[in-house]
Write a structure and sequence with these properties.
Mean pLDDT: 90
Number of domains: 1
Shape: elongated
Helix content: 55-70%
Oligomer: single chain
Strand order of the largest sheet: 1-2
Number of strands: 2
Structural class: mainly alpha
């Protein structure tokens, strides 16, 4: 029950952010130059691309969400540490929660990074979306590490 509530909360947050980003992208479309910076080195743009590049990252976000969603459906196919018959279900539930977090936050990383690229292209402040994307990426990195240590400490 709690897993489903948590999952629906992530669904609502993710859809809201994605809808906001798509709306913001289309509302600023006329202000976006035809060529935008898509890569930075030492704070300065060093690669440029078409403004249509801004549609790639939301598409990648949806593909990643879908692919990780396939893994979430079969937690028994993942590798586990200290897996026994007694703790099998507990580890499966914990792994499913972790994969759901990675699924939704991982896809939001791309949306937030794209929002920062969009804001940068039109001359708006872009540090907050970049910071959020980095923070979400860090959470996605630490979730499996937390699960690894948690599973190693199980007593049964």
């Amino acid at each position: 029950m709690r897993t489903e509530t948590f999952k629906w909360m992530l669904v609502i947050i993710s859809i809201t952010i994605l809808i906001y980003h798509v709306f913001h992208l289309f509302s600023l479309w006329s202000e976006i130059p035809n060529t935008i910076p898509i890569h930075f080195s030492k704070g300065k743009p060093d690669h440029w691309g078409s403004r249509y590049f801004l549609f790639i990252m939301p598409a990648v976000s949806l593909v990643i969400w879908f692919l990780i969603g396939l893994v979430v459906k079969k937690p028994e196919k993942l590798n586990y540490v200290n897996l026994t018959e007694e703790n099998r279900q507990l580890q499966y539930v914990k792994a499913e929660k972790g994969m759901v977090v990675i699924q939704y936050l991982g896809s939001l990383v791309f949306v937030c990074a794209n929002e920062a690229t969009l804001r940068n292209a039109v001359g708006m402040e872009s540090s907050l979306p970049y910071s959020i994307a980095i923070m979400l990426l860090a959470i996605c990195f630490f979730v499996p590490i937390y699960h690894l240590f948690w599973a190693a400490m199980l007593k049964y």
